[in-house]
Amino acid sequence: MSHPNIMRMIKFCCIITAIIALTTAASAQRTVAVKIDPTKSVRDAFDRLVDGIKQVDAEKVMSVYDNSDRTLFFNNNGTATIGWETMKTNRESSYAKTKNVTLEITGIRVEMLGPSSAYVTCKWKQTQEYETKLENASGRMTLVFRKIGKDWKVIHLHTSPDSPAANRPVLPSERTLQN
């Protein structure tokens, strides 16, 4: 083999080696696992719930809850509602008389309990017009989520007011001004 042929062969091998190296590097970059935040889809479901409340949209709000007769709601006024259908009827009735809702959510915390269960805690402050009268309330909320199929659904809601009514059955030792 002549000298120019050897040089061409060396050049060809260098080019092939460079192409293989670049292809391997590019392929390796694509296969690097993207770390998925396991709380994101729970937070997305929570955000849909908040948007539904702000929009006074009972359908949107109820779409975030598990459509089950076992879904349990501990309400802000100290009562409990059992069952999706009952809560849907209650929401539709109250939302028909509600407008101009503002809702501020702070201190949101999403905790995964496993691959198919999580809970969200937060503080909330809400104002709205109900039957043309301005209402204000604030409190804390815990929502228990379960992954049902591909969707995260609320199976339990517990909300407590910051300032419960004086006649509410709460022990005197539980009445504090701490936040």
For the structure shown, list the relevant keywords.
179 residues, alpha+beta, Nuclear Transport Factor 2, Chain: A, 6-stranded mixed beta sheet, 35% helix, elongated
Question: Explain this structure to me?
Answer:
The protein has 179 residues and is α+β, with helices and mostly antiparallel strands. It has 2 domains: 1-32; 40-174, Nuclear Transport Factor 2, Chain: A (Roll). 35% of the residues lie in helices and 36% in strands. It is built from 4 helices and 6 strands. It has a 6-stranded mixed β-sheet, covered by helices on one side. The longest helix has 29 residues, at 3-31. It is elongated and about 105 Å long. The termini are far apart. The model has no long low-confidence stretch (mean pLDDT 85).
Helix-strand layout with pairing:
Layout: H1 3-31, H2 40-54, H3 58-63, E1 72-74, E2 80-82, H4 84-95, E3 98-114, E4 117-130, E5 133-148, E6 151-161
Parallel strand pairs: 1-6
Antiparallel strand pairs: 1-2, 3-4, 4-5, 5-6
